[in-house]
Fold Arrestin-like N-terminal domain-containing protein.
Amino acid sequence: MPPILRTGGQKLDIEVAAPPGWIFAAGDPIIGHVLRHTFLLTLDATVTLTLKGRIKFDHKANEDEEHYYNEEQLLGTTTSQTLFHGPLHVPKDSSSTTMATWPFSIEIPTKVDRIRHNIAGYSGFLEPDHPGAVLPGTFHVRSGSWSECLIEYYLEAQLNYINGGHRANETAAVCILLSNPPTGRLAKYDLELRKSCQLARSYRLLPGRQDMDESFKQKIRRFYASETVPQFQYEIGVWWPCVMQLHNEMTLPLKISMRGLGEKTSITVQGVTQHVRLNWIKLNLISSTTAPRKKGAWNNVKFEHDYDLGLEKAFGDLESPITIPLTPHCDTKRLNIDAEDSNGGYQTVDIGDLFQLNIRPNGLYTGNKLLRLNAPIYPDLVSYSMRHEHRLKWKVSFTVAGITEQIKGGSKVTIYPSP
């Protein structure tokens, strides 16, 4: 189900007055010419031009699953024009001065004309008489070799004429790239928080023994959680964004907050500063593209695409690792973590600010450096025949007294288009 890029040739072609790869916006005019180079002599010819837009969803998880296909037309008859009607003569060996040309100017609508999908018996995500939703931008997502969804726009020209007493028809088409509807620039990202209480057991927690090698007997005691093994209790909080905006200069907030706790910390290490090394953070953005279920079916049709944003690579480029000093105290009162500061004994590292993280359609950036090239990232959207949304998953690796631990989490994240 590849998108339409360009069809046509000497018999009929379309030239758009715009540079290659130009991205239009809803409401823009598209100007250009429809061309005929080869010989034609007829008493009755009609040249029409139509701007078309559609959503196509094609899914088959495997060879044994039923094939699902649905299509939604986004534009109506208002985007169709008759450029010519009457007798037509195009000379043989026509040049730029003798070939047939028909200029056009057609305006891109700002809203979906009306809901028109071509397969009955489906429960859509919007009501069929939903008032003109905004026109979504060009979109193309694949998952493996079986699942694909696209939103495409294209100009289609048709030349219909009489040839030897019979009707003949020539067709040409050219892709039109459309940007997503603009939104206001977000001034602040909403955050989610997950807190986790950790307990490290090691003889290396003792003062002056941070670099010691544990004996076999000590390792056995630690494995069986013997009471003779010193232990250190601490709390870690991870803050991550639940909204993002493409091409927003504001850094993505991603924060790690830690605090030493005395409740279960051994007396032998009370007041001893422990250093937690932050090894890496892994971020994955999961896009979910869903089509409506058939009436009477239990589930919608859905496929996912996993974007590895490559954040752990940024940690490998650091000259020295990130370490967070924590000192446990006998006060066992656990305070609320404040996202704006590190009061209450919490030490906070703002990873987003440290690496100047920002999200763009081709991946996650640190400053102006792309961490890992990804397939295009599209903003969230919903239409009658498809819904596209995202989840953000993270995993944090850290080391205390030679013991490496990991915590993970995630949540739904809303991605807004560029401002």
